[in-house]
Design brief:
Length: about 120
């Protein structure tokens, strides 16, 4: 399984940014895919995920501003951040876990900076 993260970049507070994870090697129907945010000095924590069955989950504190979606045909799992806040800054990594296994695969990470 290979994951390629794209999108992100610099955004002003209150703006929107979209992150995408292109998945190859396995179908999304066979993968649990999620996004984690890495904040310097604070570690990583998961902000959103989608199960192999298509269930979508968001961290409670992000539910009003984040959206996760998946496109099975295009093999994309995307994270939309609206009304960006300084606390959203960091490096975001996509990860995938084949259903019923403990294997994990990771994207290369992508930076989100929030200014203003």
């Amino acid at each position: 399984v290979q994951l390629v993260d794209s999108g992100g970049g610099s955004v002003q507070a209150g703006g929107s940014v979209r992150l995408s994870c292109l998945v190859s090697g396995m179908a999304l129907d066979d993968l649990f895919v999620g996004w984690v945010q890495e904040v310097p000095g604070e570690g990583r924590y998961e902000v959103a995920d989608t199960t192999n069955a298509g269930d979508l989950h968001l961290m409670d504190s992000k539910k009003d501003r984040f959206t996760i979606s998946r496109d099975i045909v295009r093999r994309l799992v995307s994270l939309q951040i609206n009304d960006a806040k300084r606390e959203d800054a960091g490096v975001y990594f996509c990860f995938a876990r084949p259903a019923y296994t403990r294997l994990e695969f990771w994207g290369q990470g992508i930076q989100v900076a929030v200014s203003g």
